[in-house]
Write a sequence for this structure.
């Protein structure tokens, strides 16, 4: 019966029907192609941004490594200097000598001259 229906249809109607179906399919294909283009463009943009972000991160990592090395060098220098500091025992020995000599009781040159003059007068 199906064959009777299609054989009874006018060939122009069949062509028109096929033509409209082809246009619908072409429209869907065109829409799909445009969507794919937009998706591809978005992926390219996203890839470029990620590449840029990665480059920035790599530069920041390089900068941090340089700063870290600089800090390590500074810490090494500080530790070297600190190793040259006097230890507690040395400071204690110096303190004992200073207290023994008691530099606050030292006389000045002027006082010595005055003492000599006074000693000569008293003789």
């Amino acid at each position: 019966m199906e064959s009777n229906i299609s054989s009874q249809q006018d060939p122009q109607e069949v062509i028109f029907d096929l033509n409209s179906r082809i246009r619908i399919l072409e429209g869907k294909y065109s829409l799909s192609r445009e969507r794919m283009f937009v998706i591809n463009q978005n992926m390219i943009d996203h890839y470029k941004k990620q590449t840029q972000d990665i480059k920035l991160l790599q530069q920041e990592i390089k900068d941090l490594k340089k700063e870290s090395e600089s800090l390590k060098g500074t810490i090494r220098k500080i530790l070297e200097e600190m190793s040259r500091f006097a230890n507690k025992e040395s400071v204690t020995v110096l303190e004992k000598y200073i207290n023994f000599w008691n530099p606050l009781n030292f006389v000045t040159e002027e006082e010595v001259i005055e003492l000599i003059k006074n000693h000569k007068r008293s003789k």
Summary: The mean pLDDT is 90.
